[in-house]
Write a structure and sequence with these properties.
This protein is an all-alpha fold and 236 residues long. It contains eight helices and two strands. Strands 1-2 form a two-stranded antiparallel sheet.
Length: 236
């Protein structure tokens, strides 16, 4: 049943997205690449949230996710005055390692949304939501097969942040700052974002290297003790 719901959800997302893009390109008088992108981003979140809702999470699971999201938000807010140097992605990655890929996406997306009430909501918010969500989702998939330690946690975390988070968030700059969509202009935007992405990736590496492994053990201990989240028919 759950598998059927996921398949139907993804089909709805794909069909709706195709229709919107076709309408924008062929029927609309002016094509808004930003509108198309935002709609695609919002729709891409739909299967994850629907799947989570259909799983009927317990009060304990909701409490644990709420605490992790709050911790991620606070970790971003504490370093408010230090541009890009924030442990928020590290918290999202640890959450995904312990609770699985789908919940990693949920923690990442909600963290970006909630924390932007402090940092400021804007056209960049859906991009940040999907970017952090994707980082959590991919981390969950990787560490489902790989046993986490401080080295692979920190290295994989830094790579995910630099490439996936950086690419998705910088896309919002491309769509809002570039009027002439040429290779040179798009390339310039992505090159300008490299220092910021590198700092964010470096901070993720540092926090995961120092705190990641012990953080994973603590969450796993709580999860196992109370049987909060079941993955592959067993507690993580």
């Amino acid at each position: 049943m759950k598998k059927s719901i996921k398949i139907i959800s993804f089909l709805v997302v794909i069909i709706t997205t195709i229709l919107i893009v076709l309408w924008q390109i062929f029927l609309s008088s002016t094509t808004s690449f930003y509108l198309v992108s935002v709609i695609i981003l919002v729709l891409s979140m739909f299967p994850f949230f629907l799947s989570f809702e259909k799983s009927m999470p317990s009060a304990r699971e909701m409490s644990l996710l709420g605490v992790l999201i709050a911790l991620a938000v606070v970790s971003r807010a504490v370093f408010y005055l230090v541009p890009q140097f924030k442990p928020v992605a590290a918290v999202v990655i640890v959450s995904a390692v312990c609770l699985g890929a789908e919940r990693g996406y949920i923690v990442g997306a909600f963290t970006a949304f909630v924390s932007n009430f402090i940092f400021g909501q804007g056209i960049w918010t859906p991009f940040q939501m999907v970017a952090l969500g994707v980082v959590g989702f991919i981390a969950g998939l990787i560490f489902k097969k790989v046993k986490p330690n401080k080295w692979n946690l920190s290295i994989i975390g830094a790579v995910l942040v630099f490439f996936f988070y950086g690419f998705i968030v910088d896309l919002s700059s491309v769509l809002t700052m570039v009027t002439d969509y040429s290779f040179a202009s798009v390339f310039a935007i992505y090159m300008a974002g490299i220092p910021f992405n590198a700092i964010f990736a470096f901070s993720t590496f540092i926090f995961l290297f120092i705190f990641g492994e012990s953080f994973v053990k603590k969450i796993n201990r709580i999860n196992t003790k109370y049987g909060i989240v079941m993955i592959d028919n067993k507690s993580v």
